[in-house]
Amino acid sequence: MVSRRAILFGVAAAAGTTAFGRRTAAALATGAPSLTPVNFAVPAGACDCHTHVIGDPRKFPFSPSRSYTPAPASVDELKALHRALHISRVVIVQPSVYGTDNRCTLDALRQLGVSARGIAVVDEKSSGAELDEMDGAGIRGIRINLATAGQTDPDLARKRFDAAIQRIGGRKWHLQMYTTPPVIAAIHSRVVAAPVPVVFDHFGGAQAAGGVRQEGFDSLVDLVRTGRAYVKLSAPYRGSSQQPAFADMTPLAAALIHANLARILWGTDWPHPDTTVPAGRSAMDVAPHLPIDDGVALNQFGMWVPDPAGRQQVLVDNPAGLYAF
């Protein structure tokens, strides 16, 4: 089945890596990417809570079991984006393509310094000493990514959830998950009982077409309302078919914001990796990133949260507390 995202970006992807390379070169040459200007006053200390850095594969090799291969996305490009968006803090999330090899993410944290925090991917082989070293480098949580691989088995989600909680131990970290609303419903009781904060990526995997009554979305709203979980209003294009502002995500955003503004985060999902592998392309082939206008996306957030005090809470206060800036 062809996804809405594949249809939406098919024309752009067909332009291939040459066009992407021209856009990247232009962004670096000018010091800022080409995007729509932000139309509201971004508060000082605002944080982009979901980004990735993709390094030179000769220095940071991809996992041989990866499900897609992204194009490079450097720290310098990320800095240029954030200058244009008036964003001063960032969270680097370990992408699935590196597996549990967090060296690229840790390198990005070293380059960015005190303005950055990170989310790692670990397993049972990651030693306590390694986790402590990551903590000192700015890692503040463990990520479980089920959605990219299409994993929807509730039993697997429960096992991965329990294992991650055990690995966090007494560290002041949180558990971050990318999954779907039905899986969230299946682990609802575990989230409620979790000894650490739980964060759900990308609207909890909710899809605009399903609306607020889609299976499992009520569980996500309940967890946000009761303060048991955070949710990122990030990567709206992963649930939308309405480029470029993805306004069809508005009912979902409104429901989550109304539930509890103190548990809402915002992020770009830059550099917008195309995690699909359409016919004619191998998972080992480099895929151009999706052509998302992050200025439009941030302006859409400004419409969802029109009050300056609310923007301050979501963009500054909530991430400052969760990530210990």
Overview of the structural elements:
The protein contains twelve helices and ten strands. With 325 residues, the protein is of the alpha/beta class. It is globular and about 45 Å long. The model is unreliable at 1-32 (pLDDT under 50). It has helices at residues 4-14, 16-30, 75-85, 103-112, 128-137, 154-168, 181-186, 188-193, 217-225, 250-259, 294-304, 308-323, and strands at residues 47-51, 69-70, 89-93, 116-120, 139-145, 174-178, 198-200, 230-234, 264-267, 286-287.
- Sheet of most strands: 8 strands, parallel
N- to C-terminal distance: 42 Å
Helix content estimate: 40-55%
Counted beta strands: 10
**Spatial strand arrangement across the major sheet:** 1-3-4-5-6-7-8-9
Task: Note the beta-strand portion.
Answer: 5-15%
Oligomeric category? single chain
Mean pLDDT: 91
Order of helices and strands: HHEEHEHEHEHEHHEHEHEEHH
Q: In a few lines, what is going on in this structure?
A:
The protein is an alpha/beta fold and 325 residues long.
SSE layout and pairings?
Elements: H1 4-14, H2 16-30, E1 47-51, E2 69-70, H3 75-85, E3 89-93, H4 103-112, E4 116-120, H5 128-137, E5 139-145, H6 154-168, E6 174-178, H7 181-186, H8 188-193, E7 198-200, H9 217-225, E8 230-234, H10 250-259, E9 264-267, E10 286-287, H11 294-304, H12 308-323
Parallel strand pairs: 1-3, 2-10, 3-4, 4-5, 5-6, 6-7, 7-8, 8-9
Helix pairs in contact: 9-10
Q: Any descriptors?
A:
325 residues; alpha/beta; 8-stranded parallel beta sheet; two-stranded parallel sheet; 12 helices; 10 strands; globular; disordered N terminus
